[in-house]
Amino acid sequence: MPQTDLPPFFSRTTSGELQIEDTSVGTIVDRFGSPTYAYSRAAIESAYHALDGAFGERAHRICYAVKANSNIGILSVLARLGAGFDIVSYGELARVQAAGGDPAKTVFSGVGKSADEIRGALAAGIGCLNVESEAELRRIAAIASEMNRIAPISLRVNPDVDARTHPYISTGLKDNKFGIAIDDALPLYEWAHAQPSLDVTGIDCHIGSQLTDVSPFRDAAERVMTLAHQLAERGIELEHLDLGGGLGIRYIDETPPSAADWIEAIRSVVDADPLARDLPIWIEPGRFLVGPAGAMLTRVEYLKPGEHKSFAIVDAAMNDLMRPALYGSDMAIVSAGTGTGRRLARDWEIVGPVCETGDFLGHDRALELAEGDLLAVLGAGAYGFSMASNYNTRPRPAEVLVDGDTCHEIRRREPLESLWALERLPPGD
Ligand code: LLP
């Protein structure tokens, strides 16, 4: 593994201790225990400002994809910056509201919205439903009409663009379950336009996640614009274009485009088109806003050096951070504080206590370790805690928001009893 650069707002003191903003991770773990997720507030804010600034004078909305990290503390930081939200369940909408976010600036994506979710979203005054199939469009029209409401909708079109990312997180190919094939969209738009309970407000597309090249974004925007012209010819006027999320981040040695590159790729298409000149552009970034801001802090419990493989067993596992086990993702793991045991330099397998061989956080990591050392898994602010589970009856970690030299516990470590609080013993004989 190549040497890792630290993300913005992460640094080392002269004595080599890892800091997030002005707070040492040793202090965080002393206060909140291990494992713990720690996020830099300044990193989130600066990522947001980078995107926001890249739009310049153009009308836009940044709808943060809540699934990346749905802690209400994080959502409130983004809501205060003026963000809208992209949700995929009624639960996420309830979180947005609990965090002070505005449902009117929220879009609802997802292929399987239930009738209750659609009703709940309309009652809350959702900004737009991103519709992913003809069946869903019909269901929304019927529910809105029952409720005497007009549902703002956008069709999520599938532009058949290869995002060239991991197959599990590529969504814009015609074989994917997402969206409506762009070639089938026109008659559905015409149908929707004729429904009194529907208000056609936009076109939506999201082609995948962790993209490290801008050209698929440009291709998708071009296809969306072709459709926008066909709609205009039929008298269907749009109020926004939603071009999705997906901008990648650096985990190890990726070289993703910057915020400015991404927005420039989109603007190179829409700014040049008179039809789109005054149309607000919406985007749905998740990972870019919160990924680099977060680290999962974990302590080395045991070292098991071996002839073929050497294992560093840490107190975090696949249940706490699923990305390595689920996608084989490489995430940087750096030393964050030293324990008192004997130090050993090896290529370590960094593994957790869960009873599965797939339970690893990293392979072959050249580190000099001692028992009791603290490690930080970087880039863990997105799809880290939000995908964590209680597998092996392991309470999920605490989450801490670092703000300069102070930190706020935005989620406490789960108390053990809470793990079975909803369970009941069956009646005895
Ligand atoms: N919009 C929609 C409709 C999405 O499905 C997603 C992510 C996003 C926006 C945000 O994408 P982002 O900007 O974060 O790339 N668990 C996987 C990632 C799954 C992404 C799912 N959809 C991972 O850990 O890599």
Report on this structure.
It is a single chain. Helix 2 packs parallel to helix 9 and helix 8 packs parallel to helix 9. The chain contains eleven helices and 21 strands. Helices cover 26% and strands 25% of the residues. Strands 4, 14, 15, 16, 17, 18, 19, 20 and 21 form a nine-stranded mixed sheet that branches. It has an eight-stranded parallel β-barrel with strand order 5-6-7-8-9-11-12-13, surrounded by six helices. The chain is globular, with a radius of gyration of 23 Å. The protein has two domains: 10-33 and 293-420, Lyase, Ornithine Decarboxylase, Chain A, domain 1 (Beta Barrel); 42-285, TIM Barrel. The model has no long low-confidence stretch (mean pLDDT 95). The protein has 429 residues and is α/β, with parallel strands linked by helices. A hairpin with a 2-residue loop joins strand 20 and strand 21.
Q: Tell me the domain tally.
A: 2
Strand count, sense and closure of the main sheet? 9 strands, mixed
Mean pLDDT: 95
Bound molecule types: ligand LLP
Q: What name does the CATH topology of the largest domain carry?
A: TIM Barrel
User: Strand fraction band?
Assistant: 25-35%
Rounded radius of gyration (Å)? 23 Å
* CATH architecture identity of the largest domain: Alpha-Beta Barrel
SS-derived structural category: alpha/beta
Terminal CA distance reads: 59 Å
Low-confidence stretches: none
Name of the CATH homologous superfamily of the largest domain: Alanine racemase
CATH class category of the largest domain: Alpha Beta
Globally, the shape reads globular
State the helix count: 11
Helix percent reads: 25-40%
